[in-house]
Amino acid sequence: MPHAPRLSDLVLGRATMPEGSFLKHLPAPTWKAMIQDWDQRIRSYSRDDRLPLGPDDRHVFIIVQGCVRQERFPHGAFPGSPTITRFRGIGEVVGEAKLIERTSAVSTTCLAKTYVIPWRVSYMHRLQRQHPDVQLALLRSIEDRSRRDERIYGTFVLPPFQRVSMLLAHLAETAGVPDPTVSRRTVISGLTQRDLAAALQLGVSTVENAVSSLRRHGALEAGYRKFIVHDLDALHDSAISTQP
What is the helix, strand, coil percentage profile of the chain, to 5? Predict the structure, then answer.
């Protein structure tokens, strides 16, 4: 299971990125060349801050630590409108639609302290022309993310217990931070059971029941805006089990 990288390790290319992420697909020499060209500081955002990904913003971001919640409004934004909620973690690019349409926008909220690297859209276009492996890494990561989203968020025929387990296991691997005081324990910060319900399109009480079952099995415990995973293997087992 990947750990949240130290920022210095990431900049030097020494951090292991989650499978399927943009930075996992990107060759190390290309990443080092990008960092040498980069003349800005890593930006940090606090919990509940929104990344500047509105219609007038001109950056995409690579998440290097933390996790964000993205919400889209397929039928338009109005009170009570349906939303599509997804979580994005370490190594992923957010705001990539701006590379196609600069006025695109998506509501992107940090669930906990989050560190990102901003890249101007114009620079990313130039970089993709000069380094085809950047474009290939981005396309591969988007395809991997699409397949993962289908598996985690779109498997409505599975029992809620499995779906909640699958999403929590995914978040532990892509956004969890190891607890330095206890080995094999991982903390997912900033997440609520209501967030899980919105992402999986389940009732909050249904998610609460699934989390209670996982707690009884000793796989995790839930606190205020965080989940503490005690046994990731057990969580994966629950994701393929039909019995809570």
Answer: 40, 20, 40
Distances (CA, A) of 109 to 26, 45, 70, 184, 233: 25, 9, 6, 28, 29
pLDDT at 28: 86
Residue that the structure tokens 């094999």 belong to: 184
Instruction: Decide: helix, strand or coil at residue 170.
Output: helix
Q: How far is CA 82 from CA 50, 185, 242, in A?
A: 20, 35, 29
pTM equals 0.89
Secondary structure tally for the chain: helices H, strands E: 9, 11
- Reported as a single tens digit per residue, the pLDDT across 187-244 is 999 999 999 999 999 999 999 999 999 999 899 999 999 999 998 888 989 888 766 6
Angle at alpha carbon of residue 37, lines to 33 and 40, rounded to 5°: 130
Contact of 200 with 164, CB cutoff 8 Å: yes
